[in-house]
Every structure is written in structure tokens, then in C-alpha cells.
Q: What sequence folds into this?
């Protein structure tokens, strides 16, 4: 197996070939990958959407041909733009739960899409381009619990939130905060930040380790403990609940 697709709602992508190994991110339904190595019941893969490398359980992957892999372009395929959607397999009648940002190969406007020999149908309204702002989309994830490596509305980390929200608006960005910080256009001053801009934060060693989305002037929505809104200024994120600064502001980027 050289190429594969995620044909289940999500697959944990781990640092090593072990169920106890750290989950670094997830493959969502419809995301394809290149298989570079095998180890027992595990496969080392490269996620086509973002270039992330890690290990997944082989039996959770569905093999695809080189032609299918090339056709499944994550930057061109429509995606689920609601927090959750339910698709029905028209061949078997079975239902599958999809989360926001899931990729829909060979999608048609009637709400049908196809993965290999299986055709599915979902509500076309769950795939319509978002007429709301990036910030409004991010607000729909409020109270989602923090999960290291997660990128769906049942559990996500800080960069999982920003990546999925951007994808739901047709923008494909990288996975980790430090990688996302290399993209976009620099906003020189926090006073010039607009809702939807991404703010990045670092540790004392200068390493970027956190990201959130600028909300109304002076506020940010981010995932730390859960997805919530805190104050933002030139120093960083201030938690009124804890009465302290929790993250040091490094830079702000604009993607639209």
C-alpha cells in the first residue's frame, strides 16, 4: 500500500508505532496520505493536506490508487462546513458521522460524494461556503475541550482550532502553531489587528507554542483548557479568571 485515504471519521496520527504513543494530530475523513513505511500493524504516513508525518494503525486506512490519490486534492475538494454532519452510504444504508473540515472527494451539488466504490449523501447545506466571518465560525467551537493533537469539535488543540476554521473557509494552512506562524501577512501592531487574524505566542526561549484568533478589539478566542475568549493586548493574553497573563504575544498574521 503506497497511498491511502481516511475512510472513517478520524484517525489518530501518533509519534511512534504504539497505541500509547503521543497523538500529534488526526486525519479527518477524506484526507489522503502517502504510506512510506510499515511496522507490524502500523503504517508511517505523510498527510497530503499538511505534510505531517506520523504513525497510524494500518487497518484504519483505505488503500487508493495513485490516480485516486492525485485526484484527492485537499485544497480543491469541498469540506464539511458545519461542526458535524451525517452522511449515508447509498450502497449499504450505513451512516457515518463527519466533523467540520472533513474532505468530500468527488462532491456534487446534490450532496453526494464518492470514496472508491462507495457513494454517500449528506445535507448540501452542510457543505455550503460559509457566509459568516472567520470569527463567527470560530465562535461555534466555544467550550470545545482541549485535546492535544485533536482537530474536531469533540476535542482540539489551539492550532487544530485555527486550522479547521480556516479550512471551513477554503483556506489550507499548516498544522502546528510554529508552522502556521510562517504563513500569512505580518500585522505590525496589535492595534491594527482585525477579527480573524491569527495571533501567535511564545515561551521564554522564543519558541512559538500557541495560537489563537483575534476577536473584537482587545480580545482573542483560543483553545487552552477549552475554546474560550480572553483579553488580548500588546503583552499577550490576560486571563481575568486567573488574574494573570498566560501567554506572551510574539506576532500577528493575516490570512485573508
A:
Amino acid at each position: 500500500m503506497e497511498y491511502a485515504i481516511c475512510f472513517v471519521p478520524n484517525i489518530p496520527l501518533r509519534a511512534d508505532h504504539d497505541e500509547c504513543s503521543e497523538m500529534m494530530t488526526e486525519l479527518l475523513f477524506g484526507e489522503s496520505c502517502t504510506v512510506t513505511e510499515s511496522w507490524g500493524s502500523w503504517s508511517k504516513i505523510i498527510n497530503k493536506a499538511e505534510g505531517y508525518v506520523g504513525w497510524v494503525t494500518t487497518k484504519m486506512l483505505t488503500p487508493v490508487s495513485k490516480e485516486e490519490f492525485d485526484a484527492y486534492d485537499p485544497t480543491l475538494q469541498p469540506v464539511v462546513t458545519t461542526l458535524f454532519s451525517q452522511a449515508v452510504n447509498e450502497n449499504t444504508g450505513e451512516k457515518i458521522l463527519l466533523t467540520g473540515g472533513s474532505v468530500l472527494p468527488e462532491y456534487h451539488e446534490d450532496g453526494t460524494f464518492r470514496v472508491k466504490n462507495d457513494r454517500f449523501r449528506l445535507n448540501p447545506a452542510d457543505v455550503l461556503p460559509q457566509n459568516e466571518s472567520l470569527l463567527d465560525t470560530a465562535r461555534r467551537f466555544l467550550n470545545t475541550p482541549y485535546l492535544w493533537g485533536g482537530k474536531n469539535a469533540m476535542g482540539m488543540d489551539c492550532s487544530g482550532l485555527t486550522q479547521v476554521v480556516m479550512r471551513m473557509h477554503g483556506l489550507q494552512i499548516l498544522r502546528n502553531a510554529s508552522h502556521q506562524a510562517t504563513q500569512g501577512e505580518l500585522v505590525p501592531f496589535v492595534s491594527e489587528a482585525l477579527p480573524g487574524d491569527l495571533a501567535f505566542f511564545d515561551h521564554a526561549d522564543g519558541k512559538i507554542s500557541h495560537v489563537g484568533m483575534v476577536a473584537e478589539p482587545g480580545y482573542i478566542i483560543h483553545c487552552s483548557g477549552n475554546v474560550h475568549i480572553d483579553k488580548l493586548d500588546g503583552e499577550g493574553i490576560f486571563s481575568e479568571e486567573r488574574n494573570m497573563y498566560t501567554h506572551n504575544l510574539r506576532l500577528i498574521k493575516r490570512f485573508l
